[in-house]
Each structure stands twice: as C-alpha cells, then as structure tokens.
Amino acid sequence: MAMVNFQLDEMQEMLKELAHQFAVEEIRPHAEHWDTESIYPKEAIQSAHEMGLLNLHIGEEYGGPGLGSMEEVLVNEELAWGDPGFATAAYATSLACAPIITGATEEQKQMWLGKVAQEGALASYAVTEPGAGSDVAACKTTAVRDGDEYIINGSKMWITGAGYADFFFVLAKTDVDAGYKGMSGFIVESDAEGFSLGKKEVNMGQRCSDTRSIQFDDVRIPANQLIGGSESGGWMNAMKAFDMSRPNIAAHATGLARAAYEHALQYSGERSTFGKPLHKHQAIQFMLADMKTKIEASRMLTWKSACDSDAGIKNTESAAHAKRFAADTAMEVSTDAVQVYGGYGYSEEYPVARLMRAAKVMQIYEGSSQVQKMIIGREITKDL
Ligand SMILES: Cc1cc2nc3c(=O)[nH]c(=O)nc-3n(C[C@H](O)[C@H](O)[C@H](O)COP(=O)(O)OP(=O)(O)OC[C@H]3O[C@@H](n4cnc5c(N)ncnc54)[C@H](O)[C@@H]3O)c2cc1C
Prior knowledge:
Elements: H1 10-37, H2 42-50, H3 69-82, H4 84-103, H5 106-119, E1 123-126, E2 142-146, E3 149-160, E4 167-173, E5 183-189, E6 195-197, E7 211-222, H6 234-270, E8 272-273, E9 276-277, H7 282-310, H8 316-341, H9 351-360, H10 369-381
Parallel strand pairs: 1-4
Antiparallel strand pairs: 2-3, 3-7, 4-5, 6-7, 8-9
The protein binds flavin-adenine dinucleotide (FAD).
The site of flavin-adenine dinucleotide (FAD) has 20 residues, from strand 1, strand 3 and helix 10.
C-alpha cells in the first residue's frame, strides 16, 4: 500500500538547497537596498534563471527544466525566504506562462515557452483592470478580429513586471455581450505599436517588484497570437492558470512567514526584559509557538496542493486552502514578529518591518483571501 510521507527525495533536497544558497548569497544581501530604492532585481532574476531556479514547470521539449509543482514550491519558499519582493518579481514570468501551458497550441508553446526557457525572456500576466479585479468577468478590454489580425483596446492595472516584460498574456473580450464566456487570451509583445506603459506604482511593500498599468490603443497583433487558436475559452484558461500558480504564492507566503519567525526567534534570545530573555516569558514563547504551528500548516497545505497538481488531481480547492491560509499566516506571523521586536520592530533598521509590509499584498493578489473563501465555498457546495 502506498504510504503518505513528507520526506523529500535526493533531487528535491538538492534543488531546495541550491535555492536556499542562492537566497543566502544573491538575494538577502541586497533585499533591503532593492526595497528602499525600489530597484528591480533584473540581474538576480537572470542569474536565478541561468541556475535553473525559475520557470521549472516549462517542459523539456521547450527547453525548460520540466519539473513538477512540488519542486517548484520548494524553490519558491526559499526564494521568498530570501526576499518576498524578489520572489514576486521573479515569478511573474511563470504566471504569464501558466495559461500558455494549459491552453496554447503546440506551435504557440514552442514559440513563447521556448523564448522564456531558452532566451530568458520575461513575461507578465495582464488580467486585472482599473475597474475589474476580483470580478474578472467585468473586464472591458476588447479584441476585435480584422482579417489576419486582432485589434486590442483597453487598459490593465497592477501588472507585475510590466516595465520589463518582453510579452504579455492578455485577457480580452472577443464577445462583449457574453460575460466571462466571451473572453479570450492573447499574447501581446511589448514592442507592439499602440502599447504603452504607465508609471511604476509606489507600493506599501515588495518595492523591488515593478507594478504598472498598461494601455492598448488599437494594438494590432497577428491572429495566431490568440491562445489555443479559438475564441471564448480565455476565462476558463486564465482561471486554470491560477490552480498552477497558487501553490507557488502559498510557498512565497510560507517563506516570508518563516523568515519573520526566524528573525523573531533569534531576537527573543538576544533581548532581555525583567531579568530574562524574551523567549523565557511564556506569552512570547506561546507567540513563537503559534507562529511555528501556522508555518508548518501553511507548508503542508502548500505541498498538498502541489502534490494534487502533480498527481493530475484537480487542485482548485486545495490550492485555495493553501493560498488563503499561507497568505493570512504571512500577515499574522510578520505582524507578531514586529511585536516581538517591540519598538525596534517598527523601525526599517530591522528586517521584520519590511516583511510585514511585504506580507499584505499576499492577501490581495492572485485572488484575495475573500476570493479564496468564495472558491472554497463554491467547491464544497457544488454537489448539494
Ligand atoms: C502588487 C500587486 C501586484 C499585482 N499583480 C498583478 C498581475 O501581475 N496581474 C494581474 O492581472 N493582476 C495583478 N494584481 C491585481 C490583483 O490581482 C487585484 O488587486 C486583486 O485581484 C483584487 O482586485 P481589486 O484590487 O480590483 O479589488 P476589488 O476586486 O475591488 O476588491 C476590493 C476588496 O473587496 C473584496 N471583495 C471583492 N469582491 C468580493 C465579494 N464578492 N465578497 C467578499 N469580498 C469581496 C476583495 O477581497 C478586496 O478585499 C496585482 C495587485 C497588486 C496590489
């Protein structure tokens, strides 16, 4: 009988260690500077790509590593432990590739996944609009067929990595009266005529990650950049992409929480009040214990959703559990870490303030915590 076990195999251990060393040497030393100065970590992203730590889910037939979701979450926890802003910035391309993996034609996969895996091209996922976030079906961007081309008009908001992307996955309406069923996915290159970038947003946290609006004014693209070659499957495909990406966002949140907890644990041994180290006070020890339990639970939910995906089991619900619980944990644990540091925690001199600022967006993007509850609610009641 097959046993459930939580032991990583030799290759997984090696990959995790490689990602950890990369985080120690190439991410942590720069994290504060990147955040303070809002510097996009382009060179570090390129090095991570060259070391085989990014876009692990792109198949070998397209020049990618061809690894599973489980390997991907192991790496992503370590990268976010290094710096959550780096992890978000580096993951943008994977998110944009997800709907290509799940819905593109073979020819499109060769072309666009090949560019990412073999040439280190960067990409962004452009779905959210100024007036449509959680309610994706309310999106207004249109794509109208004109001979061998589509003409795209509209704008997208909060697009991670937009200023550096070579191409975008864009969700647009090909039938404006058909709601979410009238949506189609497209590839748009950043040098297309009529495409323009908005200014970089000044975000609360993860400031090294580039977030912008983008605008399409009569942007003409070849019709063969319609993903999957037929209209209308775009919404479903963009949602399927989330089943692939959410375990990784949960892994980022787990890595962030672990980093905050480790800082708090260490500090609790260095700082004394009332004649003993902080961690000898039971109230602080219980806080640390709660942090650790939630981190362990986040990781288990993350691994479960990744294993479901690798086993070909529909992971919509398990990915929603993981993403929501891990994001909420990252927020709680980083807030408690600031508490353990007391006044010093409130200062940007110490890393926990940056981690607390970085955590908040994890409850917002890739489907907010409320949206995850809506997904879980829908999944558990659908057969009633
Ligand atoms: C830093 C950053 C990076 C991002 N990167 C990307 C990206 O790369 N690509 C992309 O396409 N998008 C991206 N986003 C957008 C992100 O996915 C959206 O912000 C998110 O989906 C929420 O949409 P909204 O901001 O429009 O909020 P709204 O949808 O307006 O929601 C506002 C609040 O109401 C809650 N809410 C909404 N509807 C309901 C409901 N029915 N029941 C209960 N509560 C509800 C939400 O949870 C939220 O708390 C990014 C956002 C940020 C901040």
